[in-house]
Design brief:
Largest sheet: none
Number of strands: 0
Helix content: 40-55%
Shape: globular
Radius of gyration: 13 Å
Length: 56
């Protein structure tokens, strides 16, 4: 398996965060975002954290 090379200037942690998803949600995510799924999940988490910080 090829090692992931991040886009942009931000380095990635060596620690992996894993999450189990309901089958239907995983299927929709993979269908919608395919090979860009990891980047999409990173962006979604960053957006959620930003919204939480703004409302705090």
């Amino acid at each position: 398996m090829a090692k992931f090379k991040p886009d942009g200037a931000k380095a990635l942690s060596r620690k992996v965060v894993g999450v189990k998803l309901p089958l239907e949600l995983e299927s929709k995510l993979r269908s919608a975002h395919g090979s860009e799924l990891s980047n999409w999940i990173r962006e979604a988490i960053a957006e959620k954290l930003e919204r939480e910080q703004q409302s705090a």
